[in-house]
Amino acid sequence: MKPLSRRNFLKASAGAGTAMALQALWKPWLPRLAFAQDGVAGDVIVCIFLRGGADALNMIVPYGDDAYYRARSQLAIARPDSNSNGRVLTLDDFFGLNPDMGALNDLFAGGHLKAIHAVGAPNVSRSHFEAMDLLERGTDGEEGASSGWLGRHLSATSSPQDSPLRAIGWDDSLQTSLRGYTSANAFRSITDYHLNGDEAQTNQLMASLASLYQNADNPLDMAAQATLDTLRTVERIDVDQYQPANNATYMETDYGRALKQTAALIKADVGLEVACVDLGNFDTHITQGITVHEGIGAFPGLVSEFANNLRAFHDDLLDYMGKVTVIVMSEFGRRVQENGAGGTDHGHGGVMYVMSEHVLGNAVHAVWPGLNSNFLSDGDLAITTDYRDVLSEILTKRTLRTDLGRVFPEHIYHPVGIIAPIPL
Amino acid sequence: MSKVSRRIFLQGMLGALATAGCSTIIDQQTQPGLPDVLQPPSGADRHPIAHLLNRATFGPRPGQIEAVLAQGREAWIDQQLDYESLDTTAVNLRLRRYDTLNMYPRDLLGFFGETNRQFVRDELAIATLVRAVYSERQLYEVMVGFWSDHFSIHHYKENTAVLKTIDDREVIRPHALGHFGDLLRASAHSPAMLVYLDNVRNTADMLNENYAREIMELHTLGVDNGYTEADIPEVAKCFTGWTVNSLGEFTFIPEWHAVGEKRVLGEIIHSDDPLAEGERVLDILTNHPNTARYVSSKLVRRFVADDPPESIVSACVQTWNATQGNIREIVRTILTHPEFDNAPLKLKRPFELVTSLLRVTNASYSGSNGLINRLEQMGHRPFGWATPDGYPDTAIEWTGNMLDRWNLCLEAFTGDLPGVGIDVDDLRNSVETTESADVIRFFGRLFLKHDLSASDEAELLRFMDGANDELSTTLGLLAASPAFQWR
Predict the structure, then answer these.
(1) What residues of B are in contact with residue A226 (Cβ under 8 Å)?
(2) Is the pLDDT of residue B128 over 70?
């Protein structure tokens, strides 16, 4: 069996110079059955979860809906035609981008990033814990599977040739969405992926393990050899020395580091297929803040961190973005009406983002339910797009061999039309 | 909380020992000793008693093969099956510190908040590991593990965090070597199971078919094996109203029960006593021939081979039919079957890797949580499997975490595995010479119960020479080698 290597794929798709540079830097690892027979690979899926319930209305602002300005006399972000420094950046004639997320403006304009608004889980709870649990499990309600949607996708598509680094959750313990796949890794840094013990002995240990595990017909020995290959590759990824491409700059935060290391692993070609990244503290009940110009509140800093690092990830992976899909979600949006403490309370409908070279249509997809009180769901933005339709579309169109019947058994998939399929 | 009870206990049992950590003293008192002389089996082939112990226990302890040979194979199996005759004082002393194991459901439900719930989960997970490593009732604990997978309940769904403790204590453990029908019935009344598989939401107005499907697909008949999709809502109707009250106990709510005739596997079920309808389903499933075959083949997979040999499965089915599903007799059939000794190797799952390593080295385990976290990292935390099919039991599912296996084995010998202590010198005292080759050969036999292959022996020697004769890491490498990953 001699399937096409990922390196060959990269040579064909990326600039030849990049591929050669890579060849010099990294020992390529051959993710054998991650490729279909004809050599087509599925995308790397990067799933970013904004924990705490991100205020969708102040990220992708419905400036064309007057009810937004009525409900948020303190917190509203000014219309694009205002004189304010903190006015929204126009995405279309109804939605605008939070100016603190300006780093993403080009990507929206260039068709590399898309927001899906008024999206969420129709039966979602307004409790963080329950809501995150529900979204990550991908079920209809509290009942149903306790494994995660990505865990089910990974186990439905797993093979004996899976890379040891096929799935990573950048956290101390595995995100719920990855549960159900025994080989998913949870760690904070690539530097955690190494043989433990005396560093002076590592090379000898690896040589001995290579010699002990040399029975090519045995699945355990095959897995061991793949692990040794991966270790040798990861060993060469010096996180401190890693130079992102195209002057991309990541922040030195958990979130920035996770994206940076995800990028490094994608370039290192270690067979990564799914990475889960978290950004927390979106639970802005008190003094949320509007934009950086006012200098108060946590929200401006959070959305800047979110956007700037996502932009860095895009630029760093410019030559690879054809084979990477980033999904961003949060457990719910926040209440339309601001509260008396300069913040917002738990809401319902929210916003998702999809970053890919293959997104379709306009910058914002929304079946807008309206913010007029008649249209709200218990005071909150109603949900007009089921988040599982977004996820289903990505799995169907950008990965191979997924089994939606296993991933979302209770859900009937209605394509949203956000992304183009891999040409086969 | 646990500190107080430990202290009271020690004052009564051992006198006041205020200066030292009490659990440390209990751990020392109950740690098994090493035999004066260790002469593990040699030869190229698998020792038949080693094979028996590799399947019927969580791994042989030093000297255990010799002990079983002296006792006689059949007598040892009889004794293990008659598990109540085996003394558990030592392991019970170790378990005293985990107070939640013995609490009432209503008290466990008082553990609000994620931190407290995790405390309850951890105590049960640790107790499971402590029993596997230290209990004399090894075969019984293997069966508890088997049924914990067969009637798998994920520890991370709503109140299962605390109710699984009750399920373990009152469903799995009392019936692990009893009759299958009793076990199935206990499971169907288990609050943790009813929560986990959503039967607490199964009402006449809004059927929830989750439990109905899984009890046929996973607990009894096997997938697509003797039932149709039409049976599922009918079974669900029979179980409407089987739920859990606010005290965390099983209760039946007649108002939730679907009235009228149900048709299950061709039988009309209709009773004046609505609770009897679900009970009737349990009888039908218990006595269905496909249940005997399906459950037997899973048992044979556990004890014999990933691909269960038909001859042994058939023998189990015969025993099942002759004894009305007496699990003890079915396990006896497997372990005494003439083909048992020919079984191919099974890959140790991470839990079995940990227990066999701790047992073969006579390691101390403090019962701390760190080792459970390591198992979680390796995808094998007790009760951590999210789907109701239980942890997989075939090699192919468990080759994904080689690095974690290696690190675990290496750290065990460098003192870096949390809560685990291995006294290498104590083990080494049984070797008369100090020649590296003899030492490696001895430990090879101790760990594997047969001689190392020539190439593995040469590689370990080569490593030890390069590592300034440092034994600990070499033993870690031996434990990390493929030969120790199989059982």
Answers:
(1) 402
(2) yes
